[in-house]
Amino acid sequence: MRVVNAEQMRQIEERAIHHYGIPSLLLMENAAWAVVEEIRRCLPQGQVDFSGRKAVILVGKGNNGGDGLAVARHLVLQGMDVTVFLFAELKELKGDAALNLCLFQGTTGKCFVIEGEKQRRLTRLALAQADVVVDALFGIGMRGALPSLVEEYVDQVNRAPGWVVAIDIPSGVDANTGKVYRTAIRAQTTVTFGLPKWGLFLGEGPEYSGRVVVDPISIPASYLEDEGISAFVLTDDDVRKMLPIRTLKGHKGTHGKGILVAGSKGMSGAAVLAGRGALRSGIGLLQIVTPQGIAQEVDTAITEATIWSAPGDDFLNEEAWSVILKQSEKAQAFAVGPGLGQNLEFTLVLGDILSSLSCPVVLDADALNQLAIEPDLLGLRNGQGPLILTPHPGEMARLCECSVEDVESNRLDLAVAKAVEWEAVVVLKGSVTIIASPDGRAFFNPTGNPGLGTGGTGDVLTGSILAWLAQGVAPLEAACLGVYLHGKSADLLAGEYGWSGFTASEVADKLPKVRRELELKSNTGKEGMSLWGCDRFGLK
Ligand SMILES: NC(=O)C1=CN([C@@H]2O[C@H](COP(=O)(O)OP(=O)(O)OC[C@H]3O[C@@H](n4cnc5c(N)ncnc54)[C@H](O)[C@@H]3O)[C@@H](O)[C@H]2O)[C@H](O)CC1
Ligand SMILES: [K+]
């Protein structure tokens, strides 16, 4: 599914209204229905009956406020006790928003205009009793920080016991960057219209938006699939199509041979975990190359891989590297980095790896740190074969010679720019990992949870990507598959353990199960519209 910035969404909306002829009021009405349906799902056991329930709707002066007023009307008509707090003068509302104010005023719902501090008691009482709070203050039209009048109330809203549903984007979150200037509404659910906005996946957006639900509000699919939009969010449907197809006659030879160069003294676990990630992702043959000083440990821990005990005690030495390069010519995929340590021998050979191996090469961890010393080495790849880099923000900062803050405040643009410049697939890890392609496209990953923040999970990911490459999956898709399933695996574990306490080996071991679940899930059309798994936000 494509992901847009505010301007792109505005253009799509414009075309839907003026070229396709959909009345803007109908879009607003559809948007309101989508929110009402989501409110029904949020109430305990998806209660069908709204009567006796209380809702507070916070309304701004723009069309986001208009959506909120339409929601308010539907909730009143369905029996809810609804109070609207208007953060604007009545006369400020224009067009569809003004009409919806008028329609709401014709119902039994209550409407108060917030003018300053003096309504604080009223809002506090209403918020304390509300089952649902709807944030319709600002949508994609917001620029900069929330106005101070609104800010005075945000804290109250965020402490309210009811379910907070944001319309389109939580107010205070920048739709393009996810930046929160001072404060923002913290929603449990965000219902976004047309296509999801960049800001839901960047900066602080994910923290504030909760579970994201996308509704097309009847905008034609051809507009939502505009080729000019180059950012995407991965969905089950997308990723299922990337899975390689196995045939009855398949055997370990056809399931691909991958070489993993990993581990050093004290870091044998990295080689084991990456190996486990590869085997659990279905690789046919895995050869782990590791220094002889730790080869026995690795061999004992991972019986299914062939272990090449290579020259070198603590680290692989020069002699080892020359044989590795020669032997890897026949591999279908090559990954290097996990637990390798930083040493001179590797620095010297990195350029040769890039310039001589024609199979897809994955560089992770210490390989990226070495590369950061001499980023110009990337030029040696120069069309020799596919390259995948899997930096976390610290490694990316070193590679780009900037600060981690620079990386984090500019994740999307930086990942894309570097993927294009380096002609590599860049997997920029984070709470929302971005997979950027050399052709300028970028994919946000919606799976995973903070439980992945534990040693070894990155190694598992590298092994998994290696396995998909070895099975013949194209580099971009292999990276997407690896990242998405790795996150799903963690989400499955979070269902049992919450967001902490599961281990990297467990993440690897759940990979076949989540892959199988994905294969079995039929395409119902509606699935994939809800972007964050419930597990991520502990909703169920
Ligand atoms: N995308 C669609 O197809 C549809 C979107 N809908 C909803 O409309 C909003 C966007 O509406 P818009 O009126 O353009 O913007 P806002 O409601 O976000 O309000 C903008 C309003 O506020 C002023 N403003 C902006 N920044 C600030 C600030 N920092 N402080 C104070 N005031 C500010 C600005 O000047 C405007 O007056 C979209 O999100 C959807 O919810 C449709 O209803 C359905 C179709
Ligand atoms: K909003």
UniProtKB/TrEMBL annotation:
**Statement: the UniProt record of this protein carries the keyword Nucleotide-binding:** yes
> What name appears for this protein in its UniProt entry?
Bifunctional NAD(P)H-hydrate repair enzyme
Q: Supply the EC number(s).
A: 4.2.1.136, 5.1.99.6
Q: Which gene encodes it?
A: nnrE
The UniProt entry's sequence similarity note says: In the N-terminal section; belongs to the NnrE/AIBP family. In the C-terminal section; belongs to the NnrD/CARKD family.
Residues involved in (6S)-NADPHX binding: 63-67, 139-145, 168, 270, 339, 392, 459
Q: Name one GO molecular function term.
A: ADP-dependent NAD(P)H-hydrate dehydratase activity
Q: What reaction(s) does this enzyme catalyze?
A: (6R)-NADHX = (6S)-NADHX; (6S)-NADPHX + ADP = AMP + phosphate + NADPH + H(+); (6R)-NADPHX = (6S)-NADPHX; (6S)-NADHX + ADP = AMP + phosphate + NADH + H(+)
Which GO biological-process labels does this protein carry?
metabolite repair; nicotinamide nucleotide metabolic process
Name the species this protein comes from.
Answer: Desulfosporosinus fructosivorans
**Assembly and interactions?**
Homotetramer.
Output the HAMAP family linked to this UniProt entry. Answer: NADHX_dehydratase, NADHX_epimerase
Domain YjeF N-terminal, by residue range, is: 9-225
State the free-text cofactor note. Binds 1 potassium ion per subunit.
